[in-house]
Amino acid sequence: MAPDIRALVDRLLGAHPGDLPCLVYGDHGQSRAEVAAAVDFEAAVFAAHGIGEGATVMLQVPPSYTQVHVLLALWRLGAQVMLVDHRLKPPEVEALRALCRPQFMVSTGVPGGSLMRFEAQYELVTSRRADGRASATAHVLVQFSSGSTGSPKVIGRTAASLSDEIDRFAALPGMPARGERLLLLSSTAHSFGLLAGLLHSLLAGVTVVFARRVSARDMLAAAAQHEVHAVFGTPFHYEVLGTAQEPPALPSLRVAVSGGELMPPETAERFERRFGVPVGESYGTTETGVIAMDVSGASRPSVGPAAPGVVLRVRDGELEVLLPEGSPYLHGSAGERYADGWLLTRDRARIDAAGGVHLLGRGDSLVVVGGLKLDLVEVEDVLRLHPSVTAVVVVHAGATEAYVSAADGDAALEGELLRWCRDRLADYKVPRVVRVVPDLPRTSNGKLVRRRDVLHALPGSGCPPPARHGPTPDRIRAAPPPGSGRHPRAPGTAPGPHSTRRRARTMQTDVHQEIRAFVLSTITEDMNLPLDTDRVTDDSPLGTGGIDLDSLSLIELALRLERRFGVEFPDDDIEPVGAMKLGDLVQDVVRRGATA
Fold first, then answer.
1. Distance between CA 169 and CA 340 in Å, rounded?
2. Statement: residue 283 has pLDDT above 70
3. Residue 422 belongs to what H/E stretch?
4. Cross-sheet strand order for the sheet of 279-285
5. Which among 438, 463, 470, 553 could disulfide-bond with 549, CB atoms 3.0 to 4.6 Å apart, if both were Cys?
6. Among 57, 138, 143, 59, residue whose Cα is nearest residue 103
7. CB count, 10 Å around CB of 8?
8. pLDDT at res. 116
9. DSSP reduced 3-state for 351
10. Does residue 301 have a cis peptide bond before it, meaning omega lies within 30 degrees of 0?
11. In the predicted model, what is the mean pLDDT of residues 344-360?
C-alpha cells in the first residue's frame, strides 16, 4: 500500500529520539521533540481555519524554522501544498494562484523576504479564497518550474514519490548520517534543499544547520561553530566559500555536494584546495527529483551514475527518465515533456560505459541563473505585454539580454521596459539589459533570429562587437566630452602654485583608479555581467537604475574587494552598497584602508 503524506510525516518525525538536535540557527536550536510540538501547534491552528484532508494551500514563506513547521503541519492534515519561492513578485504569485486556484493562501504578509538573511521565525497570514478548489489528485506537493512555452509548469509529487526519493538519498553511500550536522545552503523551497537537505536529514537523524547570510564569513562561521560534517549548496555558494580569506579549520567536514546547476570544474577545484574536501554533484529535476548523484565528487566530469531505482535512457541525444506512475504535470502544463511513461528532461547528455551521466547543455529555452531555472520565453511573454513592444527576443550567455522592437522606440523606453520586468518578474528573471532596436531580424520563413552575435551587431543595439554592453544611456550619464574640463599643461610651462597639491591628488587618484578598474573588470569578466564600461561614470548607480547589481552580485563584489585590497565589509555594510554610485564605492574602499 502506498504511503499517505500523514504517515510519511510521522515516519520522518518519529525516526529518532526526541532529544536529538534537529534544526540549528546561530545559538538557537530545536530538538526533534520541539519541532514535532511546533508542527502539532501549527496543525491545530490550520485545522481551526478549516484546512484538512484534500485542502489546497499555496505556501509562500522564506526558508526558516517557520517554513519547516508549516509545511509538515499542512501535510500532517493531509493537505496539498503548493510551494512558492518567496522571491516571486505579487503579479507572479497571483498568476500561479489564478492557474491553480488554491483554497488557502499562507504567507508572511509581506511580498518576498530578505535574499541575504535567514530568519528563524515569521508571523503568518492565512486567508481563504472564495474561488479555491479542493485537490482532485493524490499529489501532496506542488511546485512550479519554468516551461518551454513561457507559462509555468505545475508539477505534482505524490507521497509515494517523495518517500521513494528520500529512500534513494538514504541508499547513496557517503550521505550525512545520524549524529552528523549538515550546513544547508540550498533553499528548502526547491527540490534539492527540501528533499536531500531537509527531509532526508529528518529520516537519517542529521542536524540541519542554517547560516545567517549568504556570505563567506557567515557560512563559515556557522560551519565552524557547529563543527559540520557536510555542506549542501549551489555552485554560487561554493564560489563564495572559495573566496574566503583565512577560512577557519573545519576538521569534521567530510562531504560537500552541489545541486541546482552543473558545478564549474574550477570552482570545485578551488573549494577542494581550500578545504581539502572534493565537491560532489547532484543532478535532478523538479518533476523527477534526484536523477544522478555522486556524493564523493570522484566522478567529475560526469554527475555520477543514476540514483538507486532511477531508469534512464538517451534518445536523440537528450536524457529521458522513466516515470511509470504517470505524468507529474497538472493543469494542462505538460506540453510535450511527458510521453509513454518517460519524462523528457530536454538536457543533452550521454551515458558512459561505467554508467556515469555527462550533461552537455540544454536542448530548449530553459537556462539556469544562480541555481534557479529560468525559461527565456517567460521573459519574452512579459515584455510582449508592454503596449509599445511589437517583437522581442531574449537570449542568455552568462547573463540574460532582451532585444525589443517597438512602434515608437527610443533609449528612454529601455529603462521603462526594465522597470516593467522588475515589477512583474522575480529578480533573477529580470534581464540585465534591454535593447530597443528598429527591427529584429527574421529567417527566410519568418522566424525571429536568436543568435546573440547577430543581435549584437544590429544597428541601434548599442553593442558593437566585441565590446560588452550594459545599462542604457538614459540610466547612466555619459562621460563629459574631452576638453570640457581641465586642460593639460603645455610642455615647458612652469608649475603653478597648486602643483604640489596636484601631485598629492595624483597619488591618491592612482589608488582610486585601480579600485575603479578592478570593480569594472570584476563585474564584466569575473562575474560575466554585460556592461559597457565606456558608458559608466562615477555617478553611475550600482543598483537599480544603473549597473543593476542584485543582492548576490553585491555580495560577490564585496568579497572580491576584500580579497584584493585587504579591506573588510561587515555584513551590515553590504546591502547599502547597492544604494551607492560607483564613485562612492571607490571612496568607501579607500576609507576602509585599501592597499594597492
1. 27
2. yes
3. helix 411-424
4. 28-31, 21-25, 207-210, 181-184, 230-233, 255-259, 279-285, 289-294
5. 553
6. 57
7. 21
8. 55
9. strand
10. yes
11. 92
Phi/psi-derived region of residue 54, left when phi > 0, alpha when psi is between -120 and 50, beta in every other case: left
Q: Which residues of 123-143 are buried (b: 16+ CB within 10 A; e: fewer)?
A: ebebeeeeebeebeebbbbbb
- Note the Cα 576 to chain centre separation in Å: 21
Between the two ends of the chain, the Cα-to-Cα distance in Å is: 68
Q: Which three cell numbers stand for residue 542?
A: 550600482
Q: In the chain, what percentage of residues exceed pLDDT 90? A: 50
583 grid coordinates: 564613485
pLDDT, position 79: 98
The mean pLDDT value of the chain amounts to 84
Instruction: Tell me the residue ranges of DSSP E strands in 186-337.
Output: 207-210, 230-233, 255-259, 279-285, 289-294, 312-315, 318-322, 329-330
Matching residue, cell 583565512: 246
Alpha carbon distance 514, 182 (integer Å): 40
Convert the pLDDT of each residue in 326-343 to its tens digit.
Answer: 999 998 777 678 999 999
**Is omega for the bond preceding 466 within 30 degrees of 0, making it cis?**
yes
**By the 8 A CB rule, do 413 and 406 touch?**
yes
Highest mean pLDDT among 101-105, 450-454, 551-555: 101-105
Q: How confident is the model at residue 66 (pLDDT cuts 50, 70, 90)?
A: very high
> Rounded to an integer, what distance in angstroms lies between the CA atom of residue 560 and that of residue 521?
11
Phi, psi torsion values for 144, nearest 5 degrees: -125, 135
Q: Could you tell me the three cell numbers for 472?
A: 542604457
Domains and CATH numbers, the chain: 5-362 (3.40.50.12780), 367-456 (3.30.300.30), 503-591 (1.10.1200.10)
H or E, element range at 566: none
pTM of the model: 0.72
| Rounded Cα–Cα distance for residues 99 and 235 (Å) | 32
CA 119 to chain centre: 18
SS3 state of residue 222: helix
Instruction: Based on DSSP, count helices (H) and strands (E) in the chain, helices before strands.
Output: 16, 25
Cβ contacts of 130 within 8 Å, gap of 6 or more: none
pLDDT, residue 513, reads 85
C-alpha cell at 186: 540550498
Dihedral sign for Cα atoms in the order 5, 64, 191, 182: negative
Torsion of CA 167, 169, 174, 176, to 10 degrees: -90
